[in-house]
User: What shape does this take?
Amino acid sequence: MNFPLYIAKRYLVSKSSNNAINIITIIATVGVVVSTMALFVVLSVFSGLKSFSLNFIEVSDPDLKVSSVRGKSFLFNDSIARILAKEKIAAYSKVIEERAFFNYNDKSHIAIIKGIDEQYLNVNRMDTAVYFGEWVNYKEKYTVVIGGKISSLLSVGAYDFLDPLKIFVPKPGKGYITDPRNAFTSVNTQPIGIFKLTEEIDGKYVFANLSLTQELLNYKPDQITSVEIKLSDAKFTEEVQEELQRSLGDAYKVQTREQLNSVFYKMLNTENLASYLVFTLVLIIALFNVIGAIVMMIIDKRANLKTMYHLGADIKNIRRIFILQGFLLTMVGLLIGLLIAIPLILLQKKLGLIMITQYLAYPVEFYWSNVLIVIATIIILGYSAALLASGRINKKLVSN
Assistant: This one.
């Protein structure tokens, strides 16, 4: 039998004659349990918030987006159509995006008008975000769907027939504007729907017929600014991106959803890392109790250590006893903490025990990767704490 492990287990389960040491050991174990629970819950909550946030991105942005490197627009020809005719591409939509000036009565707002074709809903299900009215009517050219924030800023609603929503875009050209009255192309439109997704998107986009935006921007029938693509399976993203980039050449860029929202993804990852580091710091503070418990145990068992030393146990093996004791103590706290935290997360995910609003439960996600992160963190820090505490044992302590 492993001598240090045997003694470590005996010390862990047996009560000390000094009641203060028993209390310190219990406090140390409870500290590890609470820290384990806190770390796992926080990681699960941030995983839930990340998934919750990415659901909005998945509604508004495609799997892949093709746009021109030089200039805002390009001509969608038969060559591009053949390249996009792949089995792994489920659908694609021709899109025009341009900043425009929106005016309703005496109120104005700058946003992006997004012209879409009839295939758009096969790529992005933005119609699911419409909470009043209907989605873009492709038969009625001069109708638009606006974001909830734009609706609020301009005080315009759907089916408001009293006044039109005016859209202005600068006419293409070079040099200075000499006559402001002829500097813009304008069109009168009728909002027929209002969507609500995120505050940024709600104040950024107005959706319209592709033909309306082509008329507004004086584009040719095949002239667009991008092609948005829906893949048959998200696992093909990198593969299809490389194939399209190779086939289309350097004149075009093919971007994934993550690349289109790189700042947002970086923000989520940074917040996740920051929360992990903060609660790891809390765990480190809690493990000082483990160090204290081991040091007190060393002092309490000093007579026994002398006996072991004189019977032939070397300093290395005596240190290993308390390294293993501290390690086992943290493992017990880790196990109890996970046995409490995992069911809590699963119950929150299924039953929504904690609510943000009356109809929205606090989002959480259970990932085995989070379990492994917590286990690895506790093991490494617990072992380090035990190693640090056992360093107090030296020849002078056990020989005198």
